[in-house]
Amino acid sequence: MVMKSALTPLILAVSIGLTGLMTPSALANNVSTQNVQSQASIEHMRRKIIDSTYVALYEEWFNPATGLQRYDSYYIPSSGEKNTVEKKSFQLKPEESLYKATIKRFQDIYVWKPFAIVQIDGKKVEKRRASVTPKGNPVYEIAYIDLSTGLPIKEEHYDDKNQVMTTIVYFFDHVNDPNGDIFNHKDTTTKK
User: Which residues constitute the domain of residue 97?
Assistant: First the structure.
């Protein structure tokens, strides 16, 4: 897929400015399945979506002890539209896990079919394919799953010409929030 030249500097600015330089080793932190199940700190997931028409960053935090969850989105269009920033908080059942839900989504054997195991930055990664729709776009998706954690590293959406339309890169970590600042905000939607 060839990106518009005006969007390329924006993607670099978002990639470097929001998350630091992206290297393959930074794509998925080592979060063991045991830590996913027993970690008392706050689960944090970041998804960076790069498309020919926009760049978006979605961040989610989940506190397994309280069930509090926060969802922020930053949408940066390539056209003359305004940027959108949205922040929402809500509460889930404390036994639910952001990481477990993400792992479960990619384990659905009726949607995702494993077809290859590759090495990425020294990690075993399973490639899984999902057929979306034969007549629309995207036609299919490829997910790269870190076999040591079950968490996705990257997702690619392909059109009917086998060209990448959209790339989604995932980042996972645990954060501490002793003062509760992460969940202490008002829900907002801002257009700039």
Answer: 7-172
Q: Report the CATH number at residue 64.
A: 2.50.20
pTM: 0.73
Backbone torsions φ then ψ of 147, nearest 5 degrees: -65, -20
Residue type, 94: P
Beta bridge partners, 140, equal 131, 158
Determine how β-strand 188-191 pairs with β-strand 164-175: unpaired
CA 86 to chain centre: 16
Q: Which amino acid is at 35?
A: N
Is 108 part of any domain?
A: yes
pLDDT in tens, 36-50: 333 358 999 999 999
pLDDT of 6-33, one tens digit each?
A: 433 333 334 334 333 333 333 334 444 3
CB 100 within 8 A of CB 119: no
Tell me what pLDDT residue 180 has: 78
Where b means 16+ CB within 10 Å and e means fewer, 20-30 reads eeeeeeebbee
Tokens 């339309």 sit on residue:
165
